Amino acid sequence: MPNPNITLVQGDITEQDVDAVVNAANSSLLGGGGVDGAIHRKGGSEILAECRSLRASRYGGGLPVGHAAPTTGGKLLARWVIHTVGPVWQPDEDRSALLASCHRESLRVARELGARTVAFPAISTGVFRWPVEDAARIAVGTLREEGEGFEELRFVLFDKRAYDAFAAAL
Ligand code: AR6
């Protein structure tokens, strides 16, 4: 059983000194609120320019839910941003596999880039309304199963409620 080094901090994902930060984006890759807005604001226009190139080359129809794709980190401390699109919470449909896929695909991209340290936000738990305790279980479980070989995988939780949920899952 792999035993990756998973850590938790309460804080702002745009301030993390890691190789790559994961962005809770949307399919358009053109920005939004929450983590996405904060990353583009602080990282600068180079990130959006590379997102536009991704759309022009590989993802004309948008980045599908559960997939992940990298750009520069721009002015962030992180060298790369890995954009992934979480599923919108649906009470009458189990979309857990898609939320797990966001984490698995982000790890795959991080390995391709050569990132050793990666920071994740609580994907889908804001605008996309996924209950944070359930999202924490899926996120922690997927990193545990798939996160072998990294120096550090860090969850960055904005508020205490999310921090407590991830601490419980861990
Ligand atoms: N650092 C860490 N966590 C944060 C930060 C931050 N700076 N800001 C918010 N959070 P969300 P989603 C927390 O909405 O649910 C965007 O418009 C927040 O409290 O960023 O996947 C995109 O463009 C919450 O717990 O992502 C998409 O359209 C968590 O990060 C849509 O939102 C995720 O909230 C994606 O929605």
Automatic annotation (TrEMBL):
Q: Which InterPro entries match?
A: Macro_dom, Macro_dom-like
Pfam families documented for this protein: Macro
Q: Where is the Macro domain?
A: 1-170
Q: Which PROSITE patterns match?
A: MACRO
| PANTHER family for the chain | GANGLIOSIDE INDUCED DIFFERENTIATION ASSOCIATED PROTEIN 2-RELATED, MACRO DOMAIN-CONTAINING PROTEIN
Q: What is this protein called?
A: O-acetyl-ADP-ribose deacetylase
Organism of derivation: Streptomyces albiaxialis
